[in-house]
Design brief:
Elements (H helix, E strand, L loop, with lengths): L1 E4 L1 E4 L2 E12 L2 E4 L6 H25 L2 H6 L2 H8 L4 H11 L3 H18 L3 H21 L6 H5 L6 E5 L4 H4 L7 E6 L6 H10 L3 E3 L4 H4 L5 E5 L4 E4 L3 H7 L17 E2 L5 E8 L4 H7 L5 E5 L14 H15 L3 E5 L5 H6 L23 H7 L1 H14 L4 E6 L5 H20 L8 E6 L2 H5 L1 H5 L4 E5 H9 L17 H17 L3 E4 L6 H9 L4 E4 L4 H10 L2 H11 L5 H12 L9
Parallel strand pairs: 3-5, 5-6, 6-7, 11-12, 11-18, 12-13, 13-14, 14-15, 15-16, 16-17, 17-18
Antiparallel strand pairs: 1-9, 2-7, 3-4, 3-8, 8-9, 10-11
Helix pairs in contact: 1-3, 1-4, 1-6, 3-6, 4-5, 5-6, 13-16, 15-16, 16-17, 22-23, 22-24
Length: about 575
């Protein structure tokens, strides 16, 4: 038996077989059981088929043979035995997920291109990156990949990770895991508060646990004294068996309405991408859809193929599936390159339900669709027609000021008149603005005066305000949700919305982090929208906290001068929060 010592951040004993989860370069690596190797290879083949079909459509649309020939190299790469077949072989040899196998192959081939003297051949590395990016996008076009695979792992399990950010933790089915351990970490809010909220024994700061523990290894985690026993003897398991929990409830007890410990009502809705996500959102306790990313309807196809009738059917079905709960549909949030290529790329491989990070500050979102007026009008006609099927809210993204809002509303009025001219009386729908640009945040009072609701898109707001592209490793460390400027902007928007009597919600990754969620409640936010898998944890956190105490925490946090100070203060303030035991 080996014993590792780290930092116990959540008490209790957990015993189970190790499931390894490694995050690197925005690709997750995790072990899969032998029974899933075949289906994982099938995912790769399906991704290749989708990619090939997309390249076919692109080549057909491009004028002239010369432009179409630009993609011929990518087509050849798709059928090259050194790419997808090699990744499939690694899936079988190492019993790892397809994304990680593909990443290994890409790293190897990229190093070969880098070593070539010929400049032309070196430039083909860009084609390789494009092909691999397309394959990644198509590996999980409508699901969350790793979550679905991990759901099939045989319980009881112990999660062994290099690190466990909230964006990943929020998607796991914690009823399957008896404990988790990580290489990195200390008593920070990301690990300590999350683990205690879940009532999952946890040890962090183990440095090399993912290297020393193999997939399927039996391990015992002692969150009280911060130790991890590898292959413990039966007598040790027998001695500790009575101290662990045999039954644990990771999800919150769903209450309607959801309230804090002192009775403050909190509304939690879901961010969804596809129709199939709606039922999962309801299962997780969502009280509505706070964000439907309609731009994913454009994935892999030209915009003119996404007709009014096609959109109407999707929107109407979504409203029917969620009735009587409200549904917020965001108009197309794409940039000109994505529209031109006929595809919507994703930035991460392991998750859905999170905003696609974009650093482009030019022609995108509402600016682009106002330029392509017929594209917007077609979408708005479909939305006006769908409004009769439920409680619909239309959300305009990336609005920078009142003029853009007014112009967008004028297009909506045109669409409504066109539907009325067909003999269909338009049903009322609510109109909102997504606050993602500092100029919108600073003029939130003006926007609130001409909208029915406001939504803070925290991911883009942070990027725009701090001038940080979080996909750029050189500056991604500067992406700080707890930066004083971000918190003050959010406070400013909340006050503006409150004065106008306009509902305000916040969506993005901020609300999925238990500590930041607690801070936002303390700042007066009462409506949140997040990835469905994060909702049970958020419910648990909210039910266990007192909003009156959180007001004091928020008031003090907003007087601090840096994100590091605020994070440390939150850790100290919230770490002592008492959470009732789960029977």
């Amino acid at each position: 038996m080996q014993r590792l010592r780290g930092i116990g951040v959540s008490p209790g004993i957990g015993v189970g077989r190790a499931v390894i989860l490694i995050q690197r370069a925005q690709v997750l690596r995790f072990s899969i059981p032998p029974s899933l190797v075949h289906s994982e290879i099938a995912r790769l083949e399906d991704a290749r088929r989708r990619s090939s079909e997309q390249l076919d459509r692109i080549q057909v649309r491009l004028p002239g043979k010369d432009l179409g020939a630009l993609f011929e190299a990518q087509r050849l790469m798709l059928v090259d035995p050194m790419l997808v077949p090699r990744a499939a072989a690694l899936v079988g040899e190492q019993q790892v997920n397809a994304e990680w196998a593909l990443q290994q192959v890409f790293d190897h081939l990229a190093s070969i291109f880098d070593s070539v003297d010929d400049p032309y051949l070196r430039e083909r590395k860009g084609d390789l990156a494009d092909v691999v990016g397309r394959l990644r996008m198509n590996l999980t076009p409508g699901g969350s990949g790793f979550r679905e695979v991990l759901e099939q792992c045989e319980s009881p399990c112990v999660l062994v990770a290099d690190e466990l950010p909230p964006s990943v933790a929020a998607q796991l089915d914690w009823s399957k895991f008896q404990a988790f351990i990580t290489n990195a970490g200390s008593r920070t809010y990301h690990t300590a508060i999350l683990a205690r909220s879940l009532h999952v024994p946890a040890v962090v700061g183990l440095h090399d646990a993912t290297e020393r523990i193999g997939p399927g290894t039996l391990i015992l985690v002692d969150g009280d004294n911060g130790t991890v026993s590898i292959d413990p003897p039966k007598e040790t398991l027998g001695e500790r068996a009575g101290t662990g929990r045999t039954a644990r409830r990771a999800a919150a007890t769903k209450t309607t309405p959801l309230r804090t410990a002192d009775g403050t009502k909190i509304l939690i809705e879901a961010n969804v991408d596809l129709l199939g996500d709606a039922s999962f959102a309801r299962e997780q306790g969502a009280e509505g859809i706070g964000l439907f990313r309609s731009e994913l309807l454009l994935a892999g196809r030209p915009a003119d193929e996404v007709t009014e009738d096609m959109q109407y059917e999707v929107y109407a079905q979504l409203l029917e599936d969620m009735r009587p709960a409200p549904v917020t549909i965001r108009t197309f949030d794409i940039d000109e390159d994505q529209l031109a290529s006929g595809e919507q790329a994703r930035s991460t491989l392991w998750s859905t339900g999170y905003e696609v990070p974009r650093s482009r500050l030019g022609l995108r979102s509402i600016r682009l669709t106002l330029k392509r007026r017929e594209l917007l009008r077609t979408q708005l006609r479909a939305l006006v027609r769908a409004a009769g099927h439920g409680h619909l809210r239309v959300l305009f993204p990336f609005v920078s000021g009142i003029d853009e809002l007014r112009e967008a509303r004028s297009v909506l009025a045109e669409a409504a008149r066109e539907i009325q001219a067909r003999g269909v009386e338009p049903r009322p729908l609510l109109v909102g603005v997504m606050i993602e640009v500092p100029s919108a945040a600073l003029t939130a009072d003006l926007l609130a005066a001409e909208t029915d609701f406001l939504t803070i898109g925290s991911n883009d707001l942070i990027q725009c305000c701090l001038a940080v592209d979080r996909t750029d490793e050189r500056v991604s460390h500067l992406y700080e949700p707890l930066h004083p400027a971000i918190l003050r902007l959010i406070r400013h928007v909340r006050r503006a919305a409150s004065r106008r009597g306009v509902p305000l919600s916040i969506c993005g990754e901020m609300a999925s982090d238990p500590a930041v969620l607690a801070l936002l409640v303390g700042m007066g936010l009462r409506q949140f929208s997040m990835t469905p898998a994060a909702i049970p944890v958020a419910q648990r956190v909210i039910q266990d906290l007192d909003s009156r105490d959180l007001r004091n925490v928020a008031a003090r946090a907003l007087r601090l001068g840096s994100a590091i100070e605020i994070e440390q203060f939150l850790t100290e303030s919230l770490a002592g929060s008492k959470v009732p035991e789960v029977e």
